[in-house]
Amino acid sequence: MECVCCGSASLTERRDRTAQGYRRFRCRACGRQFNERSGGSLNRAQYPSDVIALVVLWRLRYRLTLRDLAEMFHQRGIAFSHEAVRGWEAKLAPVLSAELRRRRRGKGGTGRRSWFVDETYLKVRGRWRYLYRAIDRNGDLVRDGDLVDTMLSEHRDMAAAKAFFRPAKAATGMTPDRVTTDGHGSYPRAIRATLGRRVAHRVSAHRNNGLEQDHRGIKGRIRCMRGFKSFRSAERFCRSHDELRDFLRPRTRQGQHVPADRRRRLHLRRAIAALATLEAA
């Protein structure tokens, strides 16, 4: 651990701890005192980091409203308002999505890559907005496509398509061999301009059925929320939800049987990793 003020590693641990039980330190170089949470997003939070991390994880993963989470934890003796949940999500969700996005960069394999791109509709401040989403397939045996990228846009046009493909290429660290879309007129030129002319563009409605079914995840999650009040919060939530959902989902192949206990262990291991990222924010 280093000093949050001067960066020195010359520290002395104090015997007393904070009200939440975190260790306290004193820097011998600058004389400043700090604790384990100093310098982070949760430095002045009233509640322990593990509680806040669990609230944010449940908020992104399950179909729970802000008030649902406040009521659930109140039954366990931890009282906070639904506005506190909103604030914790605004602070920690971008940290989690950025870390999960960094982890999956370049992990798509070196085999043949195929992207499936489509848009779905979300209501933000009473107006319909476009959520661009893409999944990929490494070969023909993968049953569940991996997430490529997610982007919320106010328009569905050439500029939005280009703005989607550029960060999608950066997120995966590679260029696909082909891209399958629903045939919207903005895609051919956007693919040539951002991914290159060697990328094959395939127009097929039925081949995008897997992505159409995958839209159910985000659509079902936000149904209980009755829409978003701002574009920024909608963009943040959709990206974080998709990143976490992709991280927790097991990768299987056609006909592969995965025992339930192995699925539970895998889910628990990944959920613990996500919680650790949130607690360290």
Automatic annotation (TrEMBL):
Pfam families, alphabetically? DDE_Tnp_IS240
Designated name of the protein = Integrase, catalytic region
Identify the domain of life: Bacteria
Q: Name one GO molecular function term.
A: DNA binding
- Domain (DDE) ranges: 114-245
InterPro entries in the record, alphabetically?
A: DDE_dom (IPR032874), IS_Transposase (IPR052183), Transpos_IS6 (IPR047930)
NCBIfam families in alphabetical order: transpos_IS6
Q: Which keywords are on file for this protein?
A: DNA recombination, DNA-binding, Transposition
- Single biological process term from Gene Ontology: DNA recombination
List the taxonomic lineage.
Bacteria, Pseudomonadati, Pseudomonadota, Alphaproteobacteria, Acetobacterales
Which organism is this protein's natural source? uncultured Craurococcus sp
